[in-house]
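Each record in this resource describes a single protein on a pair of labelled lines. The shape at a given residue is found from the number at the same position. The record below illustrates this layout:

***
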Amino acid sequence: MAKVAARVLLTAHLFASGSGRRSAPNRDDEPPKTTSHLLPLPIPPRPRIVSKFSIRSVVAAARRPARGGSLGKRGGPCRAARSPAAAEGVGGEEERKEGRRRSSGGGVKGRAAHGHHAGVACLLVAVICLSCAAAAAARSPAARLHRHLKRFNKPAVKSIESPDGDIIDCVHISHQPAFDHPYLKNHTIQMRPNYHPEGLYDESKTNVASTSSGEKPKVQLWHQNGRCPEGTVPIRRTKKDDLLRASSMRRYGRKRHTTANPMSVNPTMLNEGGHQHAIAYVQGDKYYGAKATINVWEPKIEQPNEFSLSQLWILGGSFGEDLNSIEAGWQVSPDLYGDNNTRLFTYWTSDAYQATGCYNMLCSGFVQINSEIAMGASIFPTSSYSGSQYDISILIWKDPKEGNWWMQFGKDYVLGYWPSFLFSYLADSASMIEWGGEVVNSQPDGVHTSTQMGSGHFPEEGFSKASYFKNIQVVDSTNNLKAPKGLGTFTEQSNCYDVQNSNNGDWGTYFYYGGPGRSSNCQ
């Protein structure tokens, strides 16, 4: 900006001296060409500049003959020029006579021209000042915050306030964030999968279920205050406070980049520092989907930057920089949502959480077709210790015809799909499936966190006390759901969080998992 200001001031000086002449453009002065990003950057809004001087006042000043310091202080940049002799305070009588002769004839015209050039210089300097102020305003934290909010929040057909304080925006299906992706600009929305996995249930039962009274079941808290109309998708509104809580506005809605430790006991597990798991898994084959019914709880979180989740993972590639992952389940994350509510969530990445992917609808990628379920919204109700138990069913599978990865919530809600082009390894199939819990252990005060996993109780306590996954299945190459073979289990510290699997007729393949975190046996 300093170079630009110097160049404009030089031009103003040439005009003021009467020798300003427009020259042919120089190719060296052209701005360098830049390569475009894969994802289009949002156009920042034009900031409103509040200045002491308006453009109108500056132009009016430029039209007046220059006298002393026209824009304020005497001796400022708009001061009328004087002869070198006068400027130095010398010259005598002859100099003064010459000045009187100039002022009484052609000097009037000269002063007018001179005042005009000085006014042009004033105008150019003012434009520089305004440009500098505009650039500074565009870079301000408030402007960046506004740009991010505009990118996340699409125009709503209808908005619904949830009892927990969330705002659910009903956005036209073709205006959802997915279509910010350049590869989806002319995408034709696939309104239903070509095939469901065999052995699930009759496809005619995929419509929204009704209660005995004919009302739709309320599975998310915002349903108590309304529903989105057909042709729209419900999106949880991102608020200013959500962005201000984040460590970085640019990384909001994304997991931190982590990779597995190749020297761990089981190198295929996500053993990244600060994260702990209690999971069951299968590997060694090609997988085209997975299903589970997950017990829903509201675990306690010790630190705002920690979370607790229960989910299934669809994984492809190595556990290095090229990891592909599709994830779905429930989570409690104060940092992401601003409360301790249990929420439905999804996540995807094609490069081990580096530059691609995000939670829910916080970036382009997942294409939602359902108007009933909002990603990131609170699940209602949740289970209680020795009391009523609630669970959710999640199915993710690869459409054999189109190749997209679809997600279904319960028997009633086909939510949408991740287009296959988002992935490298998962464009074909998955090489590993995981089910279970994960927590962030930030080790407050140098000791293990007390953030709970699942119900906050160990697996041996059993039903209504410990959290469970039941009827876990995989989708094979023939598009059939089947029980997983060779199921393994893994946990970093079984004295903090543990997992125990089993099998019976009603629950199929199942396991209990979880724990309280810090205790006398977990430090």
Helices lie at 2-16, 55-63, 84-87, 92-103, 106-138, 141-152, 240-245, 334-337.
